[in-house]
Amino acid sequence: MTPSSTRGLKRRAAFGEGRPRGKNRAARDKLDLAELNGHVGYFLRRLQVAIFKDFIETLADFDVRPAQYSVLVLIAANPGRSQAAISKTLNIERARLARMLHELERRQWVERRSAANDGRSHSLLLTPAGQKVLAQIKRLAARHEKQAAEMIGAERRAQLLALLREFG
Amino acid sequence: MTPSSTRGLKRRAAFGEGRPRGKNRAARDKLDLAELNGHVGYFLRRLQVAIFKDFIETLADFDVRPAQYSVLVLIAANPGRSQAAISKTLNIERARLARMLHELERRQWVERRSAANDGRSHSLLLTPAGQKVLAQIKRLAARHEKQAAEMIGAERRAQLLALLREFG
DNA sequence: TATTGTTATACTCTATAACTATA
DNA sequence: TATAGTTATAGAGTATAACAATA
Description:
The structure is a homodimer.
Chain A: H1 25-28, H2 40-58, H3 66-77, H4 83-90, H5 94-106, E1 110-114, E2 122-126, H6 128-152, H7 154-167
Antiparallel strand pairs in A: 1-2
Helix pairs in contact in A: 2-6, 3-6, 6-7
Chain A binds a DNA duplex through residues 22-23, 49, 65, 67, 82-84, 92-99, 102, 115, 118-122.
């Protein structure tokens, strides 16, 4: 967790001096956002990037990215379903999902069986190793979610979650 | 605006039949999101992608992406500032900003002057042509924002904007 | 020594198209 | 004809590192 620009949103105002100088000169250079203040997409994007960054750092030991995590969770909760079903639910391009599953199969976390009723589709399952590692990954994901709550405030996180889930 | 997967979040339940078949079979395949239901980042990401998609489509005639738009707006509202100032405010890597400004300069929307007081930095300005085109772009961006409000509901958009701005 | 801007590389994600095999 | 999965390509965005010029 580096003291990078993302985290730098807060901090500040912790210096008793008038105008920050030297390394903190950057903080003074905040510009007028103008029309951006009226775009919900702008703020949505900023927060999403900050949260994904924390997710990636928190799960770095397993080298699991958010998209991979969402696929693993979906396979675990819906064993035997097809790539198309996962793809549609998560809005992941089937082309990209195919490559991602290759990687998850290489790690021996996921297994593809050809479906009994439809020769075209694959049934997706977690391997025993995959189930084991997912349990650990979920613990880290839960830790990340706590960190996100600290970052943005538990109250605001709850309100955001309610608003966003309500939509889709 | 295609009837793509993004928009497909709603629709459904508009069919008097029991289980949808054929083309609507996909709608039946919605899976259990399990732990994803507790991750604010997951829903944040979904909405951000949907909104950016609408932005890109609405501004397709000018071939302006969200990041480019934010840079143009910032330069217009803060003329003469450096690349470093823009970069820090928008959390865009300075390396990426350099390439983006190359493209905006190629279109003759932006001008780089070497700063008077600091030989290292550039003062960024819109050209007259850039100011003209930005006025049109802003009108389309306002239309996009209206569409976003229709998509997620004006009420929810306002609540989201308030929550998100309050944070960062 | 630190900062500004630049070039380069690598990886993730998105968007398409083309192809096969099955239905 | 349409769907499931695969491979390939191109572009955007992110993350680094290395470098020259300047402070």
